[in-house]
Write a structure and sequence with these properties.
The protein is of the alpha+beta class and 125 residues long. It has two domains: 69 residues, Nucleic acid-binding proteins (OB fold (Dihydrolipoamide Acetyltransferase, E2P)); 42 residues. Helix content is 29%, strand content 29%. It contains one helix and five strands, in the order βββββα. The chain has a five-stranded mixed beta barrel with strand order 1-2-3-5-4. It is elongated and about 75 Å long.
């Protein structure tokens, strides 16, 4: 099997680590899917997304000079768009603004609840 950068191939997860998954593409040909390349969402626990022995489709990102192969599961998806081609800063600034508003509201509500809990504790003493 000839593995070329940019090609999409099938493989099998052979080992899981906190930093990623080793995927066997062919006998004696194994590459690494870094945890950031497992899913579009933030992956904190790789075990929630992959299991050893699972068949996966991966995109070959690069083959390094020392022979190591970098792979991606999320980029192998048909509807994947490179982040550079995705909408520019405008949409991200809108998302940031909405997030900041929700965060401020949450923090305010949290402070109110904590204040109420402190008042109730004092009144029961």
């Amino acid at each position: 099997m000839s593995v070329q950068p940019g090609s999409i191939v099938n493989g099998k997860v052979v080992r899981l680590h906190d930093f990623g998954a080793f995927v066997e593409l062919a006998p004696d040909v194994t590459g690494l899917v870094h945890i950031s390349e497992v899913h579009r969402d933030f992956v904190e626990n790789i075990h929630a997304y992959l299991t050893e022995g699972q068949d996966v489709q991966v995109k070959v990102l690069q083959i390094k000079d020392d022979g190591r192969i970098d792979l991606s599961i999320k980029r192998a998806e048909e509807d994947w768009e490179e982040e550079a081609a995705a909408s520019p800063r405008r949409s991200s600034s809108r998302v940031d603004k909405d997030f900041n508003q929700r965060l401020r509201k949450f923090m305010h509500q949290s402070d109110m609840i904590q204040g109420e809990v402190r008042r109730r504790r004092r009144s029961h003493q």
